[in-house]
Each structure stands twice: as C-alpha cells, then as structure tokens.
Amino acid sequence: MKFELICLMTFSGSIKDKEDDISKMLSHANQDLLKRGVPTGVEGGASAVDVEYNQNKLKLKIVSDRYVRAHDAVLRLKKKLSQEMGKKHHIGVRGVEIISYEVEFQVDKMPEDTINIPYSEDIKFDENKCTLKIGKLTQDQLANNYVDRMINRIKEKIDAQFYEGKGEQWILLWCSEEKDIVWNKDPTVEMGKKGWIIKGPTKGKWFYRPVAAKILRTMEKIALEEVMKPLGFEEVIGSMMVPFDTWIETGHMEGVPNEMYYVSEPITRDPKEWEELVDYIKISKEVPIELLSKLVSEPKSGICYAQCPVIYWSLKNRTLADESLPLLLYERTVPSARYESGGRHGIERVDEFHRIEPVYIGTKEQLLELKEKMIERYRHVFENILELEWRMAEVEPFYLQQAGSREAGGHTEEGTIDFEAYLPYRGEREESEWLEFQNLSIFKKYTESFNIKSQTKALYSGCSGIGLERWTAAFLAQKGIDPSKWPNGFKECYGDSPKGLKLL
After folding, report:
1. pLDDT tens digits for 391-434?
2. 410 phi-psi bin (left φ>0, alpha ψ -120 to 50, beta other)
3. Active site residues
4. Residue 50 · residue 61 · CB < 8 Å
5. Do residues 75 and 143 make contact, with C-beta atoms less than 8 angstroms apart?
6. Cα–chain-centroid distance for residue 67?
7. What is this structure's pTM?
8. Comparing C-alpha atoms, which of 187, 172, 212, 171 is closest to residue 424?
9. Helix H segments across 294-397?
C-alpha cells in the first residue's frame, strides 16, 4: 500500500521566524514518531516531505506505507507540533485541511463494473492495483477511520460483483419423511375466498378475521407452550421504533436498508403550525404531501425489522452475572415491518407480520447445547403437532454477508439453520422452492458490537424468529383449510372454530 497526502496546518499564530524549530521537529518525527508501529528490522513508516511555510500556515506532503497510514501520521504530527510549539512559542495547530490524498492498494480481482463510493474524487484500476483519490476529509473524519473504511468498501463492492447471481450458501442437514399430499392449493387464496382474511389498508398487509386470527394465535400458543416455556425463556416487551445506530451495530443498516420502513417525527406539536395542513385536509379531503414534508423531521429511526436489535441494545455495555447465563428472553408484542416490493406473496411474504423472537446469550458451549435442545423442541412441534414435511439447512443470512460479518462457505457450529417446508401448490418437491418458515442462529457478532460481557468468559448470542404467518402458511399449504382434516395435535390446541361474521 502507498499513501500520499498533502495537507495544510493552520496555527493559532504566525510561524514566521520559527521555521527552523518546526523543521527540526519534523526531521525528528521522520526518524521516530512516524516510524512507530513499523515491525523491528523492517523499512517503512511515514515521512513528512516538501514543507512550505506561509504566515500561520504549514503545507506538508506526507508519504507512507501500510505500517503508518498518512492520515494517522497527520494526526500524530498535529499533536506533536501543538505540544512543542505551545511550550516554546505559545501557539498550537488550530486545524488541518486535506488538500489532496491518493492511496494505492492491491485488490484480489479487477471489478467487472464501475465502482463509486462517497468521499472519493476518482477510483482507477490497473491490473490488480487500485488508485483511490480521496476528497476533502475533515480532521474528525480522518480520526474516525474513514480512509480505511473506504478502502474496505471498495474491496467489498468488488467481491459483491462476483458474488451477485450466486445462490445463497445452503447445506442440507436433515429432511423429514415425505407426507401424503391432501391438497395442492394456495392457502392465502382459499382463505380469501372464505372471507377469513382480506388485504390490508396498505400494500403488503393483511387483516385477519376471527378464524384466521385464531389459527395464528394457536401457532403462538404452541410455540410458547412447546418451545419457549419448556426451555426456560422469559418474556420481555420491546419498542417498535429502532434508532439507526442500533441497526448499524447489528449490521441491518448496512445489509438491508432497502427493506426498512423509516419513521419521521413531527418537528413541532404546536397546533398553530399545523393549522394550514388541517385546512387543506378539511377542504380537499386529501393530505398535501409537500406541506406535510415541511412539518416532519428527517428519519432517525425505523419500524422494527426484527425484535432482537432492541433486546441487544437494552444490554449494551453491561456485564451479565455468570449465574444469569444463558440468558433466555423472548419478545412477542411488536409486529415487524419489511418493504418487500415486488417480492410480496400471500401471507408468507408480507410487509407486516407477527413473530415471537427468542434471544439467547451465553458461552459458546451453553448456546451449542441450547441449539440442540431448541432443534428437538421444534422437531417435536413440526413432527408431532403440525405433522409437516420439512427439512433443515445451514445458510448464510443475507444481511450478515453484506455487512461483512462472516464469509460464506463451509459448515460451522455457529451460523444459521433454516427450517423449510414443502408447499405442494408450488409444484413437485424436488423442483419447487420450499418455504423458509423458521430459523435458528448463533453468532459472536452482537455481543461484541454491543459490548455485552460476562464476569469470566466470552459471550455468544443468537435468535430464532418464530413467524406466525410463516408457520400458518406452511401448515395450511400441506393440511388444507378444513379444520376437520387437521392433525389431532393441532386440533387439540385450536379447539372450536370462532363463529366468525356474515357479511351481506
């Protein structure tokens, strides 16, 4: 790697007649300060060259290698010059302006398409060498590691170009016996014909009338009674609104920003400020969007994508007592929102859905043991109560790939297991797409991201979202919508069907 940076340091007073002192400091820094971090016996580090003086300004060119990045060298020099010049001349460095910054580094592959990133002026590739020209970064941006992140982002985008179009990592772990097909209709369509469900007031939402609502609540009851309670999970209640910094910690903001629903708050609660908007609505019976946009703030949060981020947030920077491990929590009150756009289908792929979100935190050994227990509880439900045809596969979650949390490929004790159900209405089981209706994950990422610690050991965490709509879609696709033909285990939990309603 090669770094070449030209900067302008502005002092709090004139540096005229002080050039010799500064020159000596820079010469000493080239031999010592700017070499710190270079391995013993290796030539390298940073050097300040091409020095120019002008009133209260010092122009520098800094060249460096990977051992001491030029932007780190600038910050070291700023601090040192402020200290030394302050002691002797009572002036310091007031600010640093980056005039130009060019970085050369190697990449594994040549990109197939143009690469663009923020804060860059130009990006060029020659064989496996990338030359990045960086725009004007502030001192805070230099200190906050923007440059290294820019380099990493270019590499990520090149990798993504070669990854696009490939299937998600998928390793079959287990498959149940084939079940007799009792029907092959889409349950969403058939429930709609019966009036059990109707499309919601906005895209990707459904309104569940009494029978459908009871089916979902029965799924919830089964999950709580047969999975959560036997394993010792305890309920918490979370928030529907999630701030951006929490999603940055979990990787969702980097991985799936295109699937989020964002929230804007009113900029004021003063009724007078809203009077004009109300006037328009009362007269036109429409909402004047342009006027409304002036009365709400820019988004700083979004609607829950999954309940686990807020649970992790609640434990941020805390230390868990060893006696509390493994910590087993679940949240079931907050609906999830995901913008599916053209991917919407039935009740199983929607913009708003309902889940139980188990979250577990403990040592790696504790969570691997819990993982096997959870699989057995799920197996009991899917085999003995719902009597599904299903399978388990190891996969890599999309948003974690994009956030750079783990490279895809290879079997591991950690990671994610998907539980998939065969949907007869989609075609032959060997050729059709099965429905992912349950998952189970273990990662170290979140305890590290939120700085959640134990008294003695490194902590891992995981989640296993139980989607009520997905369970319902998988069950009804295989068992039909005639309650008399449902498996006895489910009928016992369901009880009698609601009376429902008759519309004229």
Report:
1. 999 987 644 554 444 444 444 567 899 999 999 999 999 999 99
2. left
3. 308, 338, 340, 349, 357, 418, 436, 439, 463, 470
4. yes
5. yes
6. 31
7. 0.84
8. 187
9. 308-313, 364-380
